[in-house]
Amino acid sequence: MAQAIYRSIEAETMNKINYVLGIDIGGSHITAAVIDMQQRNILKNSYTRDRVNSHGTTEQIIKTWCTTIKAAYKKVDIQIGRLGIAMPGPFDYENGISYIAGNDKYAAFYGLNVKDMLASELQISSNEILMSNDASCFLAGEVFAGEARNYSNLIGITLGTGLGSAICSKGKIIDANLWCAPFLDGITEDYLSTRWFLKRYYELTGLNILNVRELTLLYDESPTVRKIFTEFSQNLGLFLKDFQQDNVAEAIIIGGNIANASSRFIPGVVKYLQSQGIASPIHISQLNEDAALVGAAGCWAVQPKETVEKL
Domain limits at 28? Predict the structure, then answer.
């Protein structure tokens, strides 16, 4: 009987080590999937995505998140174990306290311990939850299971609604937080985000357009659109030159929705960087939207031994 109990406990412990739930918290959605830490891939049947009312109460939001978490585990018949969460900031990731304010999203959590609230609702220890910056998780995902597996020192950016930036130095990944860095006549995000494309198209044509994808569809027929992508490649090249030189990166990883149009601007970026003596290869994310949740789970792979032993 004792041996059977021991085997059951051992199997449960191995499940927690071999499988981690990666979670990506966005402004309007939560995405979760169980990651096989040995194979370094997503258990596709576990993939779960739900809408979140980020203007709701803490109780409403926590319940929505936990419903998604439980559903993802249930789909693959694995008991709830370790969680890796990619979370927007500002946030005290180690202690799990939110300092998000001023953008209407998740304002109800300001100053509260989100990690403890999740642990309580899921009836697990808060030690089984790791929370990290979403931009850092993007790069961590590429290092753990994507385009960056063969590099030790690199930089990564996500181009989309906003600009995310992260640095990997000898396996340690940190948020570079360059979205608000001074750049040209404003800050970096003013020039390297979806809103720059929409604003620039309106300046040149007097017309509004929904997103970058629509612009790419006009690329072949519109000299104006080609001009916009050329300007964007110049802006991005200038930004990456300084970012790479400050960190002596072996490679550059680019993700985010705008990266789907990489063929329209990356050649110009490469040409500019080469003119500046920078030959670091540029890789476009293959994990795409899954990179952050894979990276959030992958953070468990680099935890100090003493941390893991406590769980």
Answer: 2-137+291-309
Distances (CA, A) of 165 to 83, 121, 132, 223: 23, 32, 13, 31
- Rounded to the nearest angstrom, the gap between the alpha carbon of residue 45 and the centroid of all alpha carbons in its chain is 21
Is residue 37 included in any domain, yes or no? Answer: yes
CATH code for the domain in which residue 46 is found? 3.30.420.40
- Predicted model pTM: 0.81
pLDDT, one tens digit for every residue, the chain (311 residues): 544 443 344 445 556 668 999 999 988 899 999 999 999 999 999 999 999 999 999 999 999 999 999 999 999 999 999 999 999 888 999 999 999 887 668 999 999 999 999 999 999 999 999 999 888 999 999 998 888 888 989 999 999 888 999 999 987 888 999 999 999 999 999 999 999 999 999 999 999 999 999 999 999 999 999 999 999 999 999 999 999 999 989 999 999 999 999 999 999 999 999 999 999 999 999 888 899 999 999 888 865 433 333 33
Q: Are strands 41-42 and 29-36 parallel, antiparallel or unpaired?
A: antiparallel
Cis peptide before 182 (omega within 30 of 0): no
Q: In whole angstroms, give the CA distance from residue 109 to residue 97.
A: 8
Which H helix or E strand runs over 228?
helix 223-247
Examine residue 143 and state whether it is found in any structural domain, yes or no: no
As a whole number of angstroms, the distance between CA 208 and CA 48 comes to 34
